[in-house]
């Protein structure tokens, strides 16, 4: 990932959501993007030009646009109509974002538009975050990465965040190897990034 001093940036055309630019690069703010927070904290999966990414919970395309600056194609899934309008506008200005209006619980609905991907990135703030991730492993190449941004309060607001994280991690181990886990403080409270690789072929 590109850093100018200690500032994380991406190399695309600016002016997507009012982000700052620095020496011609787009500043990628860790307070606005959990993925930027993960990179700023020293974790994450290196994004490379040949990569295909499935992005679940695209919202208005803030983080999607930065990912698209680094990779070949981003399949961006979002189910809410309002953010989808903004996402469509972001996708109109990029050649490598495929916006998909769908529920990430139902991957069979967007399977016809998909190809195998190197990375599944998920940021959906739902009670069943692990289950959603598992359903979407059908698109992940063996050895590919899952980066799950776990919002512990969406799983269960009454339980300790560490307890929710431990349960999510155990669930993911059914099909994946967990290679790193990080809390995203001070940028995002009660959010953890779980980074996994897919163990073998699912076929
Ligand atoms: C925290 S926001 C994502 C922010 C975004 N990843 C970013 O960094 O710019 C979560 C988004 O996930 C979407 N979402 C939640 N559940 C979903 C589901 N089951 N399928 C698709 N999108 C979902 C919400 O509508 C919301 O826009």
Q: How would you characterize the overall build of this protein?
A:
There is one protein chain. This protein has a single domain (30-198), classed as Rossmann fold (3-Layer(aba) Sandwich), CATH 3.40.50. The protein contains 6 helices and 11 strands. It has helices spanning 34-40, 62-70, 81-92, 129-136, 152-155, 161-172; strands at residues 2-4, 7-10, 21-22, 25-27, 52-56, 73-78, 97-101, 117-122, 140-151, 176-183, 191-198. A 7-stranded mixed beta sheet has the order 7-6-5-8-9-11-10, with helices on both faces. Strand 1 and strand 2 form a beta hairpin. The longest helix is centred in the middle third of the chain and has 12 residues, at 81-92. It starts with a strand and ends in a 5-residue tail after the last strand. It binds S-adenosylmethionine.
Compact description:
By secondary structure, the protein is α/β, with parallel strands linked by helices. It has helices at 34-40, 62-70, 81-92, 129-136, 152-155, 161-172; strands at residues 2-4, 7-10, 21-22, 25-27, 52-56, 73-78, 97-101, 117-122, 140-151, 176-183, 191-198. The protein binds S-adenosylmethionine.
> If you average the pLDDT, what whole number results?
95
Number of strands: 11
- Which CATH top level class fits? Alpha Beta
Order of adjacent strands in the largest pleated sheet: 7-6-5-8-9-11-10
Tell the overall outline. Answer: globular
| CATH architectural type | 3-Layer(aba) Sandwich
Rg over CA atoms? 16 Å
What small molecules are bound in this structure?
S-adenosylmethionine
Q: Return residue spans where pLDDT drops below 50 for at least 5 consecutive residues.
A: none
CATH topology, anyone? Rossmann fold
Largest sheet: 7 strands, mixed
Structural domain count: 1
Work out the helicity level: 25-40%
Distance from N terminus to C terminus (CA atoms, Å) equals 33 Å
Number of helices: 6
Binned strand content: 25-35%
| Fourth-level CATH superfamily | Vaccinia Virus protein VP39
Query: How would you name the oligomeric state of the polypeptide chains in this document?
Result: single chain
**Elements, N to C (H/E):** EEEEHEHEHEEHEHHEE
Secondary-structure class = alpha/beta
Family: Belongs to the methyltransferase superfamily. Fibrillarin family.
GO molecular function, one term: methyltransferase activity
InterPro entries: Fibrillarin, SAM-dependent_MTases_sf
Protein name: Fibrillarin-like rRNA/tRNA 2'-O-methyltransferase
């Amino acid at each position: 990932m590109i850093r100018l001093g200690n500032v994380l940036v991406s190399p695309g055309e600016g002016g997507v959501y009012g982000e700052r630019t620095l020496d011609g690069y787009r500043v990628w703010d860790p307070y606005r993007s959990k993925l930027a927070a993960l990179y700023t904290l020293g974790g994450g999966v290196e994004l490379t030009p040949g990569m295909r990414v499935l992005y679940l919970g695209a919202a208005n395309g803030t983080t999607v646009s930065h990912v698209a600056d680094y990779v070949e194609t981003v399949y961006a899934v979002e189910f809410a109509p309002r953010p989808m309008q903004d996402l469509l506008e972001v996708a109109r200005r990029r050649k490598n974002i495929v916006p998909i209006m769908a529920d990430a619980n139902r991957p069979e609905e967007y399977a016809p538009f998909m190809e195998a991907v190197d990375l599944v990135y998920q940021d959906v703030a739902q009670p069943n975050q692990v289950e959603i991730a598992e359903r979407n492993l059908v698109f992940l190449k063996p050895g590919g990465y899952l980066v799950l941004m776990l919002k512990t309060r969406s799983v269960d607001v009454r339980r300790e965040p560490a307890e929710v994280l431990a349960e999510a991690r155990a669930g993911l181990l059914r099909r994946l190897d967990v290679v790193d886990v990080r809390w995203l403080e001070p940028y995002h409270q009660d959010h953890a990034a779980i980074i996994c690789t897919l163990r073998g072929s699912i076929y």
